[in-house]
Design goal:
Layout: H1 4-55, H2 64-77, E1 80-85, E2 89-95, E3 98-108, E4 112-113, E5 129-130, H3 135-150, E6 157-165, H4 173-179, H5 182-185, E7 190-200, E8 204-206, E9 215-223, H6 228-240, E10 275-277, E11 283-286, E12 290-299, H7 302-317, E13 325-332, H8 341-355, E14 360-362, E15 384-392, H9 412-430
Parallel strand pairs: 3-6, 3-7, 7-15, 8-14
Antiparallel strand pairs: 1-2, 2-6, 4-5, 8-15, 9-12, 9-13, 10-12, 11-12
Helix pairs in contact: 1-3, 1-9, 2-3, 3-9, 8-9
Length: 431
């Protein structure tokens, strides 16, 4: 039988735990409110910074001015700053008041060669170069996160690394930073990044594993064959047979990726479980051992990708060219993004609890236009997540369709990025 003294002791202990838990929750909620307040205070300055980067864009390998501006900003905040990593890469290090978890945030900083006229009042002053992929926004958001979290450093336990990566568009920057010792300088336990998309401003979206259906090259090798035209036609048809999308499907209108019913953020998405073939990109080449025939195929997921080569081998084995067949392989053209499932699920729960499920979207399909992001090169090194951030305002005719001549962003997305991703880092440090 429990004595009254023991009962009283346990009661006091229980209510003490409840009080500590409530206090901790209040503290967390207070931090997120302070994040939003600080973001509001610096928003106009971040827009100014973004427009400056937009007016003076620099292509991969030439980001000298951009890098200098980033380093100056981080230095003024009081962060430890390292420059010249993998070219014009910059790393800012923010130490919390106490030791703890280590988290990295990556932003790409380069622009693109592009001749079409800019569509904004603060147009590019560098002829033939434009920020039409939103990296000027990415950089401004990352600087904003650094500013906001620096103000909270006395409440933070752990270390935050801000990685500003050059040369993303030419798929060189991530590997260059790694080769230059990035992960000797920093030791993150988790790593995060984002990219603007045509989703509505105010939202972010993510899913586990693949985010893009990047193209892979399929190389099929044959021993010497005199009838190369027939072999080429057969092999082309074999690769084309991998495609499992009806020609009449709404899939082919890429604008449908944003459709609320069938787009990539819908549970009924038509942008999943697919294999797509680039019908206009086949080649044949003579080799020392025979002939190599190549085509390009993109996949929505690992299951589709893993099935491709066995399917091709079976088709060839059942054909008159079976004896001439040597090998078949998939070759990476772009790196494949592969988000960590646990981190995705935890991030979605944490952010939707703070900012609402209507702003924090779970994706079900993948971007189906064959692109990728070299953030994927960091992912084997560190458990990581790559987000999409909405930057469009359809009522104003602002569509953040990257790599398009009319690319523009609703700059309110900068506020969204700083708020949500600052809160995410705070939550992850506390995890």
């Amino acid at each position: 039988m429990m004595t009254r003294s023991l009962f009283n002791t346990l009661t006091i202990f229980f209510f003490t735990l409840v009080s500590i838990s409530a206090f901790a929750q209040d503290q967390t909620e207070s931090i997120h409110q302070e994040i939003q307040n600080r973001t509001e205070q610096i928003f106009d300055s971040l827009v100014k910074i973004r427009r400056d980067f937009h007016m003076y864009p620099e292509v991969g390998g030439d980001e000298k001015r951009t890098s200098t501006k980033i380093a100056e900003y981080l230095t003024k905040l009081g962060l430890e700053v390292k420059t010249g990593i993998g070219g014009y890469g910059v790393v800012g290090i923010l130490e919390g008041a106490k030791p703890g978890k280590k988290i990295a945030w990556r932003a790409d900083i380069d622009a693109m060669p592009y001749k079409a006229t800019d569509v904004v009042d603060f147009a590019s002053k560098h002829e033939g170069v434009r920020h039409i992929c939103g990296h000027d926004v990415h950089t401004a958001v990352a600087l904003g996160i650094a500013n906001v979290l620096e103000k909270q450093k006395e409440s933070l336990e752990g270390t935050i690394y801000f990685v500003f990566q050059p040369s993303e568009e030419n798929i060189k920057g991530a590997l260059a930073m790694i080769d230059d010792g990035l992960f000797d300088m920093i030791q993150p336990e988790e790593m995060y990044a984002m990219h603007v998309t045509p989703f509505p401003a105010g939202t972010i979206a993510v899913k586990p594993e693949e985010m893009f259906s990047d193209y892979k090259r399929v190389d099929i090798h044959f021993n010497k064959n005199n009838n190369s035209d027939a072999l080429f036609d057969f092999t082309k048809q074999a690769v084309l047979s991998l495609e499992n999308i009806s020609p009449e499907s709404k899939f082919w209108n890429m604008q449908n990726m944003g459709d609320p019913e069938i787009g990539i953020a819908s549970p009924k998405s038509i942008y999943k479980n697919f294999t797509k073939v680039d019908k206009n990109n086949f080649s044949i080449k003579k080799t020392e051992d025979g002939i190599k025939i190549s085509g390009y195929v993109s996949f929505s997921d690992k299951k589709q990708r893993d099935a491709a080569i066995p399917s091709l081998k079976k088709i060839i084995a059942d054909s008159k060219f079976a004896e001439d067949f040597s090998a078949a392989e998939l070759v990476n053209v772009f790196p494949t993004l592969d988000n960590n499932e646990r981190l995705v699920n935890e991030s979605l729960d944490q952010l939707s609890g703070i900012y609402g499920k209507e702003r924090v979207l779970r994706m079900y399909g993948v971007v189906a236009d064959g692109r990728s992001d070299d953030f994927a090169f960091f992912q084997p090194k560190v458990p990581s997540v790559y987000f999409f951030m909405g930057a469009s305002n359809y009522e104003k005719g602002i569509i953040a369709q990257t790599h398009s001549p009319n690319f523009a962003v609703d700059e309110s997305c900068i506020k969204t990025g700083v708020n949500l991703f600052s809160s995410l880092i705070v939550e992850r440090l506390d995890q």
